[in-house]
Amino acid sequence: MTVHIITGTNTDVGKTIATAALAVRLHTTGRAVTVVKPAQTGEPEGQGDLTTVRRLVGETVTTVEFARYPEPLAPNLSARRAGLRQLDLVETAAKIRDLDAPGRTVLVEGAGGLLVRIADDWTIADLAADLAAPVTVVTSLGLGSLNSAALTVEAARRRGIGVTGLIGGCLPPDPDLATRLNLRELPEVTGVPLLGCIPQGAGNLDPEKFARVAEHLDAEPFSR
Ligand SMILES: Nc1ncnc2c1ncn2[C@@H]1O[C@H](COP(=O)(O)OP(=O)(O)OP(=O)(O)O)[C@@H](O)[C@H]1O
Ligand SMILES: [Mg+2]
């Protein structure tokens, strides 16, 4: 099965941009890609992470969203407050398994970080465990990032979840001292490789330029 879970050290670290970059890289190697956002919160109709992915990648990517809740909160809280049905873990895992096919990679973007509740009784870590799918951790790069990346990787491993590696979600053109050092320290403290970094501003590029930026990302582990 080629399903990969894209999680992050926090919300807003660049999971969506990193997911789009992986999709572009995989397309150039001839793979079909489906991006799944199980639960999208806080976005009006016609907007959201999958819209961003399609804008950056182009229409070659297939996107699937299972639930949408109005307020920008953890999905379970947003669902509860709106009186909307929460996603069921078994059902969600089954739907994702159905999307899996030879020659295709399914990238599943969580909401926020690893232990954010998608529904009251499950997190994206539970989904990864159920699917036996590895996680990739999109991380911030500045001061404080070593701790949050290490915590996330450790929490995944404690649950028996494989960790493919880290992706720096937003690398500034003129990184400060902590960021420069972290590029080397992140693999040391987490024990997993840094697969690449997304340059700051990449989220605003057109698909052609975005594809060039994505070339620096090691997407090879996502073909398996
Ligand atoms: N490399 C980048 N270049 C430009 N903008 C970026 C970059 N990384 C992140 N951003 C911006 O930061 C914000 C958060 O990025 P993104 O949506 O990818 O984060 P996320 O981790 O997917 O957040 P969420 O938990 O809401 O899904 C967005 O407005 C995005 O445009
Ligand atoms: Mg996102």
UniProtKB/TrEMBL annotation:
Binding site for ATP: 12-17, 49, 109-112, 169-170, 199-201
Subcellular location: Cytoplasm
Organism: Corynebacterium marambiense
Keywords: ATP-binding, Biotin biosynthesis, Cytoplasm, Ligase, Magnesium, Metal-binding, Nucleotide-binding
Reactions catalysed, as given in the entry: (7R,8S)-7,8-diammoniononanoate + CO2 + ATP = (4R,5S)-dethiobiotin + ADP + phosphate + 3 H(+)
Name assigned to this protein: ATP-dependent dethiobiotin synthetase BioD
UniProt record similarity statement: Belongs to the dethiobiotin synthetase family.
Quaternary structure annotation from Swiss-Prot or TrEMBL: Homodimer.
Segments passing through the bilayer: none
Pathway: Cofactor biosynthesis; biotin biosynthesis; biotin from 7,8-diaminononanoate: step 1/2
InterPro entries: DTB_synth_BioD, P-loop_NTPase
Cofactor(s) listed in the protein's UniProt record: Mg(2+)
